[in-house]
Amino acid sequence: MANNPQTFKRIRQDEKKRQLHKSQITGMRTAKKRFLKAAQNNEDNAQDLYRQAVSAIDRAVTKGHIHKNKAARDKSRLAKKLG
């Protein structure tokens, strides 16, 4: 590792970015889990939770956190559970 201010700044920026991305990915996974639990228990709010999960997945794709094919696969699997 180089020992200059630019390198240390880059390390700080990367860590901040990593924390932000991590929280957004965690939020997406949580939304998916909430929907799956509601769908399994046939709860009334499953439709709303489905919309929130799909929205979270789409946001993750837009921001480059996950690949678009993974998003399509996840949304397809969630839609099957909704039906």
TrEMBL record:
<protein>
    <recommendedName>
        <fullName>Small ribosomal subunit protein bS20</fullName>
    </recommendedName>
</protein>
<comment type="similarity">
    <text>Belongs to the bacterial ribosomal protein bS20 family.</text>
</comment>
<dbReference type="InterPro" id="IPR036510">
    <property type="entry name" value="Ribosomal_bS20_sf"/>
</dbReference>
<dbReference type="GO" id="GO:0070181">
    <property type="term" value="F:small ribosomal subunit rRNA binding"/>
</dbReference>
<comment type="function">
    <text>Binds directly to 16S ribosomal RNA.</text>
</comment>
<dbReference type="GO" id="GO:0006412">
    <property type="term" value="P:translation"/>
</dbReference>
<keyword id="KW-0694">RNA-binding</keyword>
<dbReference type="GO" id="GO:0005829">
    <property type="term" value="C:cytosol"/>
</dbReference>
<keyword id="KW-0699">rRNA-binding</keyword>
<keyword id="KW-0687">Ribonucleoprotein</keyword>
<dbReference type="InterPro" id="IPR002583">
    <property type="entry name" value="Ribosomal_bS20"/>
</dbReference>
<dbReference type="GO" id="GO:0015935">
    <property type="term" value="C:small ribosomal subunit"/>
</dbReference>
<dbReference type="GO" id="GO:0003735">
    <property type="term" value="F:structural constituent of ribosome"/>
</dbReference>
<feature type="region of interest" description="Disordered">
    <location>
        <begin position="1"/>
        <end position="26"/>
    </location>
</feature>
<keyword id="KW-0689">Ribosomal protein</keyword>
<dbReference type="Pfam" id="PF01649">
    <property type="entry name" value="Ribosomal_S20p"/>
</dbReference>
